[in-house]
Batch of 2 targets.
Target 1
Amino acid sequence: MNVSYIFTAIILIVSLVMQGHSSFDVLRIGGVKPDIAFIAVIYYSYSFGSFYGEVTALVSGFFHDSMSNAPLGLLTLPKVIVAFAVGLMGRAVMKTNILTIIPLVFGASVLKGVISLLLCMIFHEAGFADIAYIILPESFYNALLAIPLFLVFDKIYENELGREGNY
Amino acid sequence: MEFFIRHKAIVTLVSSFLFFTVSLSVQSSTFTLSVEGLGSLFLMPFQKGYNFVQKGAQVMWAGFTELDDLRAELNQAHLKLQEYEAATEDFTEIKCENERLRSLLGLKEQVVYKSVAAQIISKDPDNWFRTIVINKGSSDGIRINMPVVAFTGEQKAVVGKVIEVRGSISRVQPLISPTMKVGVRLQGSRYPGLMEGYSLNSGLCVVDYINKSALLNKGDHVITSGQGGIFPPGLLVGTIEETLVLESSAFKQAIVRPVIDYNHVEELFVILKIPDLDLIELIERH
């Protein structure tokens, strides 16, 4: 399991640094870019349960908040809540295929977006227009990108998934 | 203890919820800022390393693919240089005339500010914020509220202002951010207005409080007014895309597209203009 922790840390740091680099802007569609770190959090939660997902969400969210102009917790809290919810219906409930991954990641991204919007409205600045400008386009983008990423993650965590009887 | 271990997922959720609710409520406290600073400090070497590798790869690739383009650009640059050299004489004449007329009218001499060139290290990794981190900080003379500009073609235009400074890095808030407010003026008609970001991902700004008698056309230039204590006057901001006339308002509004494309800008210049803190405080209080 130690190796998988190292892989998880590398994946989170690489995805956050990539997302934060100016070259990642070429991937913007409709003004939004995908959240790879969040897709990774959904994967961990979906594959290894709520607790593992929450811890990953806490770590990735903390670094996400640090890199961003966001106050501490604004990007972390939605991830933790979504990680908990996704973990409740993991691989044991939903088998891995395109028909389950796309709605799962889309739904999780919408939930994260709605919680972020509420937190922004209370503690920062946001409006309902952001549902159309940010939440929905980002959710579509995340859902599409999740398919290849889930396949890659499945390969990386093949042994761990096999040990848990999920592969 | 067994209860906490058995229900660790729920315990983590509840404790995270409580901790972050408190943290968000006191978001400007020393504790939360220093915790975020630690995270930023940990990630900075990775960000700088990735930036270095990416730039190196870009330069190597450009060496293979852009040689012909560079040759053509060099020829064009030579031609432009000749044009500029020819224009220098006229420019000097106009400058002298301008100075003479200014002194006759008793106008103050325009201040010329120095600037520091900076490269973008990173941008906000999410879609909810659009700040930019640059590789120059307080050690280079940069202070909070200094204006930031960039060049697009031959035009110099406003990017935003510095909102956070550390030793070797600074964070820049772009014009398109809804929390950013800039005093502007329509270049042609000279009517003033107040500009702010339109919506987070629209890439547009909105200028409010424009006099209803002002004639606004698509493509009209908008420049900084110099009021507000941050930006010097006369810097290009953007062009008008659309005019909004609301029956309920005594003013016109204009949707403005900034000249700088935030998705493609790479090099910035921080103007070393010491902000007028008293004026900024007065404006922010109202």
Note: The mean pLDDT of chain A is 86.
Target 2
Amino acid sequence: MKFIKGHISLIFPLIAILLGLEFFIVFDRTTDSFEKGLQAGYSMIVVSKDEMSIDDFKAWDSHIEHVEELEKSKILKRLNMNKDKAKQKKFEVSLPNFYSLKLNDYLTVDELEAVKSNLQKSSNIISIETFQSAYQSKYELFSFIKFSFQTFIVFMTIIGFFLIVKQMEVWNYLHAQRMKVMEIFGASLFLRSKVLINMALIDAIISAILTSWLFYLFKNSWVQGSQMEILKDNIEGVFKFSDIFILLFAAITVVLIAVFLVVINVKEE
Amino acid sequence: MPNVITANNLTLGYESDEEIIKNATFSIKKGDFVFITGPSGSGKSTLLKSFYGNLAPRSGSLVVGGLDMVGINKKNLQELRTHLGIVFQDYKLINEWTVEKNVVLPLWISGYSTEVQETQAKRLLHHVKLTGKEHKYPLELSGGEQQRVGVARALSKNPFLILADEPTGNLDEYSSNVIWDLMENACHQLDTTVVVVTHRIPMVFNIPYRHFTIDENGSIYEVH
């Protein structure tokens, strides 16, 4: 019982840290593709007096990645002004140029405002429509969800670290006497910490496997049946086989640092 | 006979405290059995600690087993300690390890094979009259038995120097006699140097010995 308790008291905080790390990785992957989707679906409309090329736009702001000229005939069609061919031709000539601009990144509202003001510096540009309110509501919702989730991850990781610090105090209490005696008889730092290292490495491996298993289940059971399109669309990003190695590396790093700190703080009497 | 310990104007003290041992000059030869006595707080244990590098000399020089203890590096100190046998009044056994594992600790540290460790443990436990208790844990033994485990551990690697700090301080007469017999034998038969800090020299002691005493001022004299 004491043996199991000793292991669980390290495995539990380690899993908390690894869950935080894996959630962060998964969240980063899924939000990245969601951001790309939002970015792809967004464009601003610019009206100019004379024709403009992509280089003309880029000269005013480097965030502009793609420019598409909107056909005047189609605009007129939408305005239902294509009944009289001659009138239409005349009207078409007098119309300014319309462009749909796509950006190279998912910009913040402030950055979007900066792009607009940069373009307005051009005397050739008559009008710019950024559709800011629709963009802003999507952006703010997305930012809020992102912030909430990241706060939760940070909080979980901090709790995990506090529990590990607590476990280090327990280790110090349980192992200090043995390490002091071994030091008196000339044992090296490695020999003195061998028992602790072995125990901690086993716990690190168990924690990494358990966390990977939880995410495997999350991917194959929960996500499949859920209505969350953002996860379903990026199901491969929810858990990758290579994540096991990332989790294992992180767990081993954390426990080795913890063991090292305990061992160097044991001073001979 | 070569010197095992040589001190010249040795001064010892803890970080902020005043000097405890002052200007001690003495030498201990191979095969010597030395008792160090003195009133409580005179610095007997402090002196012993300096012999195994637990306390660095404040000034003067101290050479143990050919190694200068002033500024000794970790590697050399570890190496020196693997050749020492140290016995403490409070035994300093590893309570979560069996008696057998405690006894062979110095051999385990030096990387001896399991067979050598087992053979040596059997032999030593027979010597200290603890045969049959190899799989017990220290806290299952009496104080006298625990100290006998401590002495067996100190002897396990045939050290060139045994340092004992009040080894019989907490023991009954029977256990005390067993401990003194073991130390006498180590010195007499194996030519091991033994330095014992004690309040009282045993009434019956069968081999020649030297007697150092430390006075209240931290000065060391050889009285016998």
Note: The radius of gyration of chain A is 30 Å.
